Amino acid sequence: MASSAGSTLNVQEGVLTASSLARLIEEGAIAASGKGTQVQPASLDLTLGPKARRVRAAFLPSGRQGLAERLDALTLHTLDLTGDGAVLERGCVYVVELAERLRLPKDLSGAANPKSSTGRIDVFVRLLTEDFEGYEKVPAGYEGKLYLEICPRTFPIVVREGSSLNQLRLRRGQGRLTDREVAAELPQGCQVDDGLNVSVDLSPSLGEVVGWRARRHAGLIDVDKVGILDPRAYFEPIAAPKDGLLTLDPDEFYILASREEVVVPVGLAAEMAAIDEEIGAFRAHYAGFFDPGFGVEAPSRAVLEVRGFDVPMILEHGQRAARLRYERLEEVPQRVYGSAQASNYQGQGLRLSKHFRAG
């Protein structure tokens, strides 16, 4: 795809950019250090606090009990995340109070998503607030603590205080683009239906390996160590099927790539959305935020984190797997995704998480 990086969209409503997030930190609306790479072009990396609680099961605040009260009742034991950190075992549910606090203006709301590197190692994370009966949403004007529910699905992981597994995106008003507006921003020929349709690539154009299937009994993954793991110790490579068909086994985890090259123009942000209710037997979305500038410097695919559900299902080359929904930014960003800030996944094709060695 060619990009439309010269977009002239300039509106006051929309997703907040890095400069606005930094300003909110300075003003105390977000209690966060803002140091290093925590502030992204259109989102804020959230960080773990000093302890994790192993809980009986996932839960939400209720009308009768806030999160803190329910957390005390459901905690099995507590792990110390300071120093060298702790191991979070696969299949277990943990809740961690995050280091960040919010005191949002009444016109700002938020949404959260796993970071790309979190989704690609099959760690299921969801944001919780103190009293909102839902996941991944921050109500407008919210004031209080943030918590993260963490459940490693395939690999045990090592985390520590300061580790970052998810991101927060703040917005003012409703800046989502209509299909007509999306089509006008993207090159001709894109399939747009409630966002940009994203399909799966199982063709030899990707090379000898068109996907990866997670191994069930691999070692630990330290979420803070980059580029050190052998991919084949954790994933089994999938060769291009001659008939273009791949059978997904129930409860197995796959990394695949989109057939389409994805571009997020500089004036926009995007989020990958699942279409489970339409395709039924698999999920193709864990981590969803795409920053402005993704795919502008170099052709880039979307990576699909796929999990089979109740029955085996055949996935066909070119089959629709997810959709990308676009939103306006509230201002032209001063920072964009790309080489200037050493973004990990610019120009990606089929790519495992940053924890693995290339090649």
Automatic annotation (TrEMBL):
Cross-referenced Pfam families: DCD_C, DCD_N
- Superkingdom of this entry's organism? Bacteria
Leading EC class:
hydrolase
Q: What EC designation does it have?
A: 3.5.4.13
* Presence of keyword Hydrolase: yes
Identify the residues that the record assigns to the 2'-deoxycytidine 5'-triphosphate deaminase N-terminal domain, covering every copy.
13-174
Q: Which PANTHER family match?
A: DCTP DEAMINASE
**Mind telling me what this protein is named?**
2'-deoxycytidine 5'-triphosphate deaminase
